[in-house]
Prior knowledge:
Elements: H1 2-27, E1 31-37, H2 46-60, E2 65-70, H3 81-86, E3 92-94, H4 108-111, H5 119-128, H6 131-140, E4 144-151, E5 158-160, E6 174-176, H7 179-187, E7 191-193, H8 200-206, E8 211-212, H9 217-223, E9 231-234, E10 243-249, H10 250-254, H11 258-292, E11 296-299, H12 302-322, H13 324-346, H14 348-363
Parallel strand pairs: 1-2, 1-3, 6-7, 6-8, 9-11
Antiparallel strand pairs: 4-10, 5-8, 5-9
Helix pairs in contact: 2-11, 6-13, 7-12, 9-11, 12-13
Amino acid sequence: MQRRRFLGNTSLAAGFALASGSAMAQATPAVKWRMSTSWPKSLDAIYGSAEEFCRRVSELTAGRFEIRSFAGGEIVPPAQNMDAVSNGTIECNHVLASAFVGKNSALAFDTGLPFGLNSRQHNAWIQYGGGMAALRPLYKKYHIVNFVIGNVGVQMGGFFRKEIKSVEDLKGLKMRIGGIGGMVLSKLGVVPQQIPAADIYPSLEKGTIDAAEWIGPYDDEKLGLHRVANHYYSPGWWEGSASITSMVNATAWEALPPLYKAAFECAANEQTMKMLAKYDASNPDALKKMVAQGAKLAYFPKAVMDASFTAAAELNTELSHNNPDFAAILPQWQQFRVKEASWFRVAETVLDNYTFAAVGRQAS
C-alpha cells in the first residue's frame, strides 16, 4: 500500500513538473533576432554598445532570447536599416533616426534637433516631457516600435581641410553631414554628402569632400580623420544630444512574451546610460591625442553660429509647413526647450562655466 502511494505521489509530482516545464517553455520560448547597426565594428563604443545590449538581453532571459548584432552593410546598407525593420527583413536595428529624415523629417526629434536639447534634457523630454508619447504614433505609421538605446552626447563640429573664418568660407564646401544639420548648412551654401562611417576617411583623403563630421574625439580618432583634415571645429550644434534608437518591427515586438519585452527595455535603458558614460570618459584623452598629433582645435566664429541658428529656425518653420508630423511635435518640443534652458541657465550652466574656468586656471 505504502509503495503504491509512493509511486502515485511520484507520478503526480512528475506530472506537475512536466506541466510546469511545459508552461515555462511556453512562457519563455527560444527566440532569435537579428539587429542591423549603422556602424563598423572598429567603433567599439557605439558598435560595442550594440553587442553588449545583445549580451544583456540573453543574460536577462537565461539565453532564451538571443539577438545577434551586425555591422553596417552586413545585412543591408545603413541607409536601408529603417525599411528593413519596417518590412520584417530584420527584427530590429541600432541607428541614428536622423539618418532617415528623407523619409520623414519628424524623425529628427528622436535623435535631436540643431540647437536643441543636451543629453540630459533630451532624456527628460523622452521620459517625462511627452517625447516618447509624441514619437510612438509617428513610428507606428511604419510598423515600428521605437526605443532609446544609447546617446553619444554633444557632437564635435567636424574636421575641415581649410580654416573657417566666416559664413563665406562655407559656400560650396562639400561636407559629410546628414540629417537636419545638413539641411541647415545647405542654406549657408554647404553641399551635404551622405557617407557611411567606413567611407569618410578615404573620401577626405582623396578630396572627394572638404569636411566631415562624425561623432566626437573618441570615434573621430579611431577613424583617423585628423590625419587627412587638421582643422577640428566645435561645437556640433546640429546634435547637442545624438540619441541612438532601436527600431523594432511591430509584429515581432508583439509576439514577444512580457518577460522578453521587459528584458529588451531594461537592457536598452542600461546601454543609454553606459554609452554616454563611455564617451564622456574616453573623449578627453582622444582629443588630447589628436591635438598632439597636429589637429588644430578651433571654434566656429560667432557669425557662423548666429547664421546657423537663424537658418535652423527658418528650416523648422519650413518643415512644419510641409510636414504635419513635424508640425505636431515642434511646438511641444520648443516649449520644453525653453523650460529646460531657463533652469539650466540658473544653476547648471553657471556652475559648469565657473568650475571649468577655475579648474583650468588651477591646472595651468
